[in-house]
## 1
Amino acid sequence: MTAILRAWTAVAAERPLTTLTVTNGALGGLGDILAQTIESHNERHRFRWDYRRTLRFVAWGSLCAPLFHKWYLLLNRAFPLPVQSSGKASFIYAVSKRVATDQLVYAPLGIAGFFVAMNFMEGQDWASAKRRLGEFYLPTLKANYAVWPAVQAVNFGFVPVLYRVPFSSVVSIFWNAFMSWANAQSASKVELPVEMPHTTVEAAQEKQLQLRLDEKQRNELVR
């Protein structure tokens, strides 16, 4: 493991953006595979790998890596950590400003960008993107604030700059898996079928379903 880390560091020091892009994309794909595995277990069906979905996460992770890196460098310049002799209070204050800026500026934009990008990579239109944002954006942002401020406090305060993108990506593996599990658990408690923002029901299917419900209601009245 140490040898792998040393080799990665050597390559990243020479070509940081390329290395971070490949690493972040691979970790994004790994997180999606883990999420799909959990989903198949929760739904109790045979695992079938949706490789297109994994490729979308690889693409998103690769796209975000250079942006993450530049953003972290910007936070470093805007809020430099004080010298060690300045005391813990100054250190905590500087890290807090980095975390606050990250969570109040980047997190809301990043989450919105994620849903919009995934929507269009799935071949959906803008109306679908708006529905998806309307249903999932705020719950995801709230969940983000329950996890990521603490993660980023460690990241900004103690992780070297070169390792910050991989560190957050490793945490994202478990974050995505947790979100998948939580979504499956909440969906299992709903008694009626729920239409997701990225799915549609044909008009004929809706009419047939309504006819069945009407027939069921008539039978109950006769009884």
## 2
Amino acid sequence: MTDKTGITELGAGLSRLGLRLVATSGTAALLRESGLDATVVGDLSGVPELMGGRVRAFHPSVFGGLLYRRGHPADEADVRRHGVPRIDVLVCNFRDLPPDDTSEGVLDSIDVGGPAMVRAAAKNHADVLAVVDPADYGAVLDALTAAGGRVGATDPGFRRRLAVKAFVRTAAYDRSVHRFLARLAESRPGRPRP
């Protein structure tokens, strides 16, 4: 998560509603510093962060938790059989790549897992809230509070609006990656490195 504005307040609100907090190591540390109980995503999946943090959330426990359709018999059977945890709210944001930077070091800052999780949550917005903007945290807490902490009891239109915003955000992010790679290719013509 790039922008941690309001994350401890959101975490506190979600905790009060009975939701378990799971985060990457940096965000989990921030939540813990605020006195909240937060599990590191690697503890959820059983796989630690790898390759300097490049691989964190790519695991069936995470994507299964985001994509499984509540009440769908085959999905429910898979969840039980494989111990896939339920993920009801995904909070994830990321910044566009710098518009004028063509240094190859920017490649390391390309977020792969975040946009993939956002897409998964937004695809399954009937059962999962995809939250990409700190400006929405208050509305998310209000909606969940009114629904007794149950995502499926929140207004379907609200869930769809969050999903639309999530896909708009990932599309903008992908455009920024495209612009960066195109500028890099223009500034360093030649064959791609192996």
## 3
Amino acid sequence: MDVRTAQKLVMENKHAKGFNVTDVPLEVCLLQGEIAEFFTAWRTSEGDAAEELADVALYVLGLAGILNIDLAEQMEQKISKNAARVYERGANGVMYKTTPEQTSAEH
């Protein structure tokens, strides 16, 4: 399933079931809860980590829908932007970006 279709289906389900479609802070809090459930399932091997991760993705799609963000488009742009970045490993082993971000004037 593609991202746009999934986002549309998530929003249709939210409307059909009477779930939140306006309160962004609430949706962020619910998303945090789903992330915690995924982490607990993964860390303890109790529960279904894959299902919990799917819940995280569905909440992200719903949040994008509430905010009228075309998440597929934003993901495509971000993947392209990340691919163009150059990273180096610092002395402490941490990766850091070595290419400067483009400013809006450069676009």
